[in-house]
Specification:
By secondary structure, the protein is mainly alpha-helical. The chain has helices at residues 2-16, 19-22, 26-34, 37-61, 68-83, 92-104, 124-127, 141-154, 158-183, 186-193, 196-204, 209-225, 230-244, 254-264, 268-290, 297-300, 302-309, 318-329, 335-360, 367-384, 394-408, 411-426, 428-431. The longest helix is centred in the middle third of the chain and has 26 residues, at 158-183. α12 (209-225) packs antiparallel against α13 and α13 packs antiparallel against α14.
Length: 432
């Protein structure tokens, strides 16, 4: 019954938003639906209904979750349907395509050149009005290398290329589900696979967080599931580095996950070798990924700085919004700028607090507690740091909350998981 409900919702979305109808004039499509507030109310209502079905299924299947084969087959069916849905929640997949073509077909670095310059590109008439066409890339170089390779497959066929990108992200989601099953267990596999926010962002909108999560899950698999050894620890660091080179947020996990890997090694010589080999491994991997794009400050720092300077007063992190209101009531000058500064300062203070907790518990070497700190850091990051907070940013947090819940069986993590899902979906009422 539950899967049938999700199937009906998916087919309904496909009926109203077929990709083949809207892909060739995506900018006009987004403008049309942006002005149709009733559509987003209906969309959000449908997604919240899906959350209700999802929660009901969790309560029903908590002690006897379906077999992995059933989860994967059901997810594959949903994926095939949702692949053909226009990415109504965001235009990022078209942005990925512009930056991929800038690199793959024109030999330019998307960290320096913008797609709006490439008026001779075959897709230019279809993509020139994308709101991000005038921006350089804010993603990691490994992501650009992957999408550049994908863009070359169909070359001049726009619809086939969009379907290929969406199909690639769907395949990543299936792989992630398998990895969650292998690391956390069956219940968590289906909780991840069919989460409505994750389905919407990865299978319909096609966001690159799914690829970042894939490498982070591989890292966690070697960290937690495999026998602690120097080889497995280095594999874990390598895959976490690849995740960072997709999108930079996992950089916040590097200290705590790296320390967890160190603590799991029992031999002192192996610990020294792990530290000595991890640093050149991280630097070398980053060097090779950045090499095709150059190694100047514009390439290395501009993507991160660009993310920090995006701003929308309706979509800031909750702490920023709260502090802004306090400052505005007090009639303090430049309340937005000051609110962002104070909120980010509070996040830095939180990092120092976590560092103090880790130092105090050093002798205990509690790896589970360390991994929980990773989830709390990303939660605090989402709550306090962003001046441009999008719903799909929550997907990585959802995974980390599942990891923490599986390690500790504390209901607080699961409650936060559901609350984050609902908050992420309701963002669409103000996003458009």
């Amino acid at each position: 019954m539950g899967f049938s409900g999700l199937l009906i919702l998916s087919l309904s979305v496909l009926f109203y938003l077929p990709l083949w109808k809207y892909y060739s004039d995506s900018s006009a499509t987004y403008l049309f639906f942006r002005d149709n507030y009733f559509f987003y109310e209906l969309l959000t209502l449908g997604l919240l209904l899906a959350v209700g079905i999802y929660w009901w299924l969790d309560r029903k299947l908590i002690k006897n979750p379906p077999r992995l084969s059933i989860i994967l087959i059901s997810l594959a069916i949903l994926s095939l349907i949702l692949l053909a849905v226009f990415p109504i929640g965001a235009s990022d997949i078209f942005l990925y395509l512009t930056q991929a073509r800038t690199f793959a077909f024109h030999g330019l670095s998307p960290y320096v050149a913008t797609y709006s310059q490439l008026t001779n590109d075959i897709f230019y008439p279809f993509l020139k009005d994308n709101r991000w066409a005038n921006y350089t890339s804010s993603y990691g170089p490994f992501f650009t290398l992957i999408t550049g390779g994908l863009a070359r497959i169909f070359k001049s066929d726009l619809l086939a290329t969009i379907l290929l990108f969406k199909g690639f992200f769907a395949a990543c989601h299936l792989a992630n589900t398998w990895l969650v099953d292998k690391t956390l267990g069956r219940r968590f596999a289906w909780l991840y696979a069919f989460n409505p926010l994750i389905l919407f962002e990865f299978l319909i909108n096609g966001h690159n967080e799914v690829l970042m999560i894939f490498f982070c899950l591989l890292s966690f698999y070697f960290l937690w599931q495999k026998t602690p050894s120097l080889k497995n620890s280095l594999f874990s660091i390598f895959f976490l580095t690849l995740g960072i080179l997709i999108k930079f947020i996992p950089l916040l996990l590097l200290p705590v996950w790296g320390l967890a890997l160190l603590w799991r090694l029992k031999d002192r010589v192996k610990k020294i070798l792990f530290i000595g080999l991890s640093i050149p491994l991280i630097i070398g991997t980053g060097f090779l990924a950045y090499l095709p794009f150059g190694l100047g400050s514009a390439v290395l720092l501009k993507p991160i700085m660009a993310q920090m300077h995006f701003f929308n007063c309706l979509l800031t992190s909750p702490a920023v919004t709260f502090i802004y209101n306090l400052l505005a009531i007090s009639k303090i000058a430049n309340p937005w700028g000051l609110a962002i500064l104070i909120s980010r300062g509070l996040f830095v203070c939180f990092l120092l607090f976590i560092a103090t907790k880790i130092i105090r518990g050093w002798r205990e070497k509690n790896v589970k507690k360390l991994l929980n700190y990773g989830a709390l850091i990303i939660l605090a990051f989402d709550v306090s740091f962003f001046s441009w907070l999008m719903p799909w940013y929550f997907t990585f947090l959802l995974l980390l909350l599942l990891i923490s819940h599986s390690l500790n069986n504390r209901k607080g993590y699961l409650i936060t998981f559901y609350a984050t899902t609902v908050i992420g979906l309701t963002y669409y009422l103000i996003l458009r």
